[in-house]
C-alpha cells in the first residue's frame, strides 16, 4: 500500500514537472484531484465487464458438462 | 480456476493500464495534448485484432490439413472477435482524428487501407453465410481467409509506411519512435497491448465454445 501511494505521488510530481512548459495539459484537473474519479469510474466499468465475462465463462462451462 | 490465470492476468493488465494511462506522465506535445493517452487504448485494439486474425489463419490452415469442422469454427469465431476489435479501433480512431487531424476520416492511406481490410473480413463472414453445404463452406472460407490475411497486412502495415501517412511510422519516421513515445509511456503501452490481446483471446474462446454447443445441438435435433 505504501509503495503504491509512493508511486502515485511520483506520477503526480512528474506531471507537475512536465506541465511547466506552455502547452495546455489537464494538470489543473489532476491537481485538484478530480481525475481520480474518472479513473475509478473506468475501473468500475471494467471490473463489471470482467466479472460478467467470468460469469459467462462459467455458464458455458456448465452447458458443456 | 487453475486454467484461468491468464484471464485474470489480462484483466489486471488492462486495469493497470487504465490507471497508469490516465495518471502517468506523458510527453507534452502540441496538437496532441492529453489525447496522446489514446495510444494506450486505441492502438491495443488493432494489436488484438491482428492477433485474432492470425489465430484465424492458423486454424484455417489447420482445417485444410485436417478437415475437422472444429478448426473451421475456431477460424470463424476468431474473425468474429477480430472484427469486434476492428470496429472499436475504427471508432476510437475517428474520435481521436476529429480532434487532432480536424476530421474523423481524413484522406489517409492507413485509414483507407483499414477500411478495405475491414470490408474484406466482412465479406469473409458474408461469404460463409451464403454457402449452405458445411464442408464446402468450410473449405472455401479457409482458402479465402488465407488469402485475406497477407492482403490485410499489406494494406494496414506495409503500404501506409511507403507513402506519407498521418499515422506515426510513415514517411520515414519510425513507429513508436522517440518522437511519439517516450520511456514513461512504453511500459503502460505494452501492458495494455498484452492485456487486451489476452481479453480478446478470452472472448474468442467463449464465442467458440458457444458455437460448438450450438453446432452439437443442431446436429442432434
From TrEMBL, chain A:
Residues 1-19 form the signal peptide. Keywords: Membrane, Signal, Transmembrane, Transmembrane helix. It comes from Sphingobacterium griseoflavum. The chain crosses the membrane at residues 35-56. The lineage of its organism: Bacteria, Pseudomonadati, Bacteroidota, Sphingobacteriia, Sphingobacteriales. Pfam families: CcmD_alt. It comes from the Bacteria. This is CcmD family protein.
TrEMBL record, chain B:
Residues 37-158 form the Cytochrome c assembly protein domain. It is a multi-pass membrane protein. The keyword Transmembrane helix applies. Keywords: Cytochrome c-type biogenesis, Membrane, Transmembrane, Transmembrane helix. It is found in: Membrane. The keyword Thylakoid does not apply. It comes from the Bacteria. InterPro entries: Cyt_c_assembly, Cyt_c_biogenesis_CcmC, Cyt_c_biogenesis_CcsA/CcmC. The chain crosses the membrane at residues 39-61, 73-99, 111-127, 139-159, 188-208. Required for the export of heme to the periplasm for the biogenesis of c-type cytochromes. Belongs to the CcmC/CycZ/HelC family. This is Heme exporter protein C.
